Amino acid sequence: MEIIIGIFSCALLSQYWNKTSWIFGGQHSVLFIFFVFLLGTLSTTSTITYYDYMKRYNAKLLDALLFGENLACVVPVILALIQGIGGEPICLPNSIQIEYSQPRFSVRVYFWILTFIIFLSFIAFLILEWAKIADSYRIEDYKSLNTYELNSQTDTSSLIQSEPSFEPMSTKLYHSLLAVAYFSYIFLYGILPIIITYAMLPYSHTAFYTSSIIPPITGPLSVIINRVNKNRLGLSSIIILCFIATCTSTYVIIIAILSPCPPLHDTVFGAIIALACVFTSQLLYNYVRVVIANRIRQEYKCNSGLFWLGAVFRMGTLSGAIPMYVLINIFHIFKSREACRSYC
């Protein structure tokens, strides 16, 4: 049902994204906000639902879920780049008008392509649920056994090799990992996506568009790194990685607060430093997320472990987004830089 709602929401968004309604004394994009809200609801609830759903399958398939979830962010960015965004605006002489490059295809076509992609994900889910192709990966008695017992079983008929045996995770360690996951999502999806415009535009529009490509890339990359690195990270290592990501994120927050004239503004060197911090923080936070999800799936003995992990992820996003909304729209802490204007 979640995916079906997403399909219809995106399809209707392609038709009515530019329609406005007279409300509260002005024209507002009511339909746009409504359909985006439905799509956001799909994104939020699907994470919790699918994390819990993965207890039906072999633990190694969790990486497939994380890789696909992150890859879904890459496709819209690639489509946007193909559409023709990313160039510097042209400042017309003796005029306040700004000229941007014309897109190769319309916004309506863009949303219809996204609708088709969501439809493909619906077909993939039906195949995973009903087709025999997934039988070798499915755990039939997942309801009667806890997660740790499932991972301790050896099924010689499976196409996937059994996971290495681990000691069961304590409740204290589980809660500690949830706390780290909650903290990482405050920055990963609560703060950084909101302030990236203020942080990168002082260095050029090219830097800003480049920064928009980084998060979708670091997601799948973190999954690949986790598959290559066979060493299991302990809690202290996870906290250290999270601390490094927080330091680089703090730099991004600082230059966003100092916008429109942060240090090294309008310089290539400044843009490189800012992009490096964005890349490092996004990669480490995503890697921490993947590591925590895999450890809970393999070691925690309660079937609801991944469900609460997904819920914590979304609570972290909400905890970061609400304060940023207040700081931006009420207290106006962050100042945006417009194209073709002199600030510094």
Question: What is the structure about, briefly put?
Answer:
With 344 residues, the chain is mainly alpha-helical. It has 10 helices and 4 strands; from the N terminus they run αββααββααααααα.
Q: Can you offer a commentary on this structure?
A:
By secondary structure, the chain is an all-alpha fold. The protein has one domain (2-329). Helices cover 66% and strands 3% of the residues. It is built from 10 helices and 4 strands, in the order αββααββααααααα. Residues 154-163 have low confidence and may be disordered.
Number of helices: 10
Assembly form of the protein: single chain
Structural class: mainly alpha
Low-confidence stretches: 154-163
**Overall body shape:** globular
Largest sheet: 2 strands, antiparallel
Question: Compute the gyration radius: what is it?
Answer: 22 Å
Overall mean confidence score, pLDDT:
84
What letter string, H or E per element, gives the SSE order?
Answer: HEEHHEEHHHHHHH
How many structural domains does the protein architecture include? 1
Q: How much strand?
A: under 5%
Strand order of the largest sheet: 1-2
Which features does this protein show?
344 residues, single chain, two-stranded antiparallel sheet, two-stranded antiparallel ribbon, 10 helices, mainly alpha
Question: How are the secondary structure elements laid out?
Answer:
Layout: H1 2-16, E1 21-23, E2 26-28, H2 30-53, H3 61-83, E3 90-91, E4 98-99, H4 107-130, H5 147-152, H6 171-200, H7 205-228, H8 235-257, H9 268-299, H10 305-329
Antiparallel strand pairs: 1-2, 3-4
GO cellular component, one term: plasma membrane
GO molecular function: riboflavin transmembrane transporter activity
Function: Plasma membrane transporter mediating the uptake by cells of the water soluble vitamin B2/riboflavin that plays a key role in biochemical oxidation-reduction reactions of the carbohydrate, lipid, and amino acid metabolism.
